[in-house]
Amino acid sequence: MRYIFWGSFDFAQGVLEQLVSAELFPLALVCNPDRPAGRHEIITPPPTKAFALANGIPVLQPDDMNNDMLRDALARLKPEVFVVTAYSKIIPNDIINLPPYGTIGVHPSLLPLYRGATPIQSAILAGDEKFGISIYRMDEKIDHGPVLAQTEITVEENKRTYSYCSQLLAKEGGMLLAKTLPAYCAGEIIPSPQDESRATYTKKISTDDGFVDVAHDDPTIILRKIQALNPNPGAFAIIDGKRTKLLAATRENGTVVITRITKEGKAPSDARIVLTPR
What we know:
About 25% of the residues lie in helices and about 25% in strands. It is an alpha/beta fold.
């Protein structure tokens, strides 16, 4: 099976790792260009690039999607199908439809729920117990195409952090894709249209969304924000007149406790801030 993998971020790397573990090596990886990162703006490659190069996978890093050279490079590889997850750029429709079997998306939600860029954070903020992965055929709309396969995963409340859920769903998504992709290309799967009446959409999360009032907000909402919004953009409060980052929290015997913070101008430290139920 000849496929090209599109993805740039940690979630995409987790999916790709499972495909490589299953001996399903892509013809190439398409990812974002290297970008300045960190306080010193050091030019840094996307997480997927280092993994791909370490495994002998050629890498393409287009800056412009409307580029004939990119189309020619993709066509020369003669892919049967594209796989896209956590790529961040809008892929033109003619490229989506370039391979004979189209383009397959991997989305960390039970579509049509939580379409858009922040499905994991949105599910945590909503207090969902059940998370999921959808493998679907992409079309010109966001997370809209027919579904090939899904898997549902229950996550207990104290493990429901963005980092944990993202790593878990990437692993599960990669394993599901390793089974689904060959079957789809062999004509063994008929995609099922999504139920538009159940569709929900996520929104872009801003720094302001991370603010909590530890004296007045519902402790459960505070817990969810700390779990969903770390490491970026992060949750924060004003404590003793200073901006304080809230890094971790848990529920102990029904009570929410903030367990790690960063005070303004200080290093991260352990804490024990017990939140009184409202």
